[in-house]
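For concreteness, we quote verbatim a single protein encoded this way:
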Amino acid sequence: MQKLHLDGSHISLQRFIEFADGPVSITLAPTVRERLTRAREIVARYAASDQPVYGLNTGLGGNLQHHIEAKDIPAFQAQLLLGRSAGVGPKLPEWISRAAWLSRIIGAARGASGLSLPTFDLMLAMTERGLAPAVPTYGSIGAGDLVLSAQMGATLIGEGEIWDNGTCRPAADALRSHGLAPIELAPKDGLALANNSSLSIALASQSLREARNTMDLAQAVTVLSGEGYGMNPSIFEARIHALRPAAGQEQAAAWFRAALEGSSLYASGSPRSIQDALSFRVVAPLFGTARNALALAERETEIELNGAADNPAVLIDTNEMLSTPNFHTPALALALDTLAIAHVHLATASAQRILKLMNPHLSGLPKYLSAVGGASAGLLPLQKTVAALLAEIRLHAQPASLDAIAVSEMVEDVAPQTPLAARKLATQIDLLHWFIAIEALVAAQAVDLRKPKSLGRVAKMLHTAIRNIVPTLQEDRATGPDVAAVRQAINAAELRSVLANIGLTAL
């Protein structure tokens, strides 16, 4: 079991993802429990007063003007969660639930939520036992994950369902089987459990973990295509990129120079072409920009993870409770949308490289990369698959953050749709993996037909991994299964580890 000590310090996205991979034992620094205790004292003082505080002694959204008497505030907590448990659709994967629950714990530990200690301790106990609230897919618009977070919070009072180490069970049964029991919520607990962005954080974290791996592979496969095409490597000369050091461009060019180390492309005194097509020639700016977009999305996710999204927030240092806009997550939504758009640039360039590798007038290789010629289709049918995938990848680049309608009596009239931005990004990344596998298969065939004297270290690793599982295409055969095998081969953990160890990933 992993161990996480919460003391108020910054938690990186990578560490958070690792903690969400399984049960985790969480300990609190004395200062954290002290802050939680002080926050509760502030909540209690406001609950006993007549001063209106949103969600504590008032209704929510369109019911803002409704006053809740002090004696009714405890009962209102369960009503708040159950009344807003309106999510629908298939359950999100267990990993997402674990990550969202862990994210809420990390956020609540900062004290601004005012969550009561018994509620917080039950959340810790659930996490240590590998329990996480099950949650449906649809219901959050990113202005806080209110509806879906309410359904997660309701498990603490025995409602809804809980993931129990791979199995989904009624909440009360799951708690009971682990020696736990539902609790009665204290004032503000309901809103603290519902009004946060933990689900957006979990969905973004999952997408970004896959995005980094995908970008590493896409960059490595681009090198293999360059070797198969016989590209001019002088385009990666450091002095060129220093003239216009756009975001990430110089670092990407350095990556390509290192990846091509040992390639016979450098041995020829006269390159095959003075200038290649742009899909080969501008890969440093393309990947530099894409990696910059990835870094921005990761940074915004970390900000959400380590911040306090609560409304209202408990300000311990000044003994106040104030309304905040921190539940609104447009920075994260826009960053995720931007990364999805960057992926289209990468996929479009990949498609163009695939087409050119099959064109004998441009590549100097046999038509359709067929080893036998004649009526052989070679790899040509894959062009239709490429076109289909590219259309879907472009579809999933449509910005989610542009869509919103006014809800809750016109009070909540803008929304960033952050969960949708994260979910469509995850789907797009899966499509991109297929795209990369096709380019890798095509590039490996081009290398076999061109027969370069030597490959650079990255191309050599990829080519070997591919040929260990898929033979060179001779006579026509079904290439769909070949693509699936290549996807699995280039995603092998061993290959990613080797790339990391020679410093060629995550620049």
Summary: The chain has a mean pLDDT of 92.
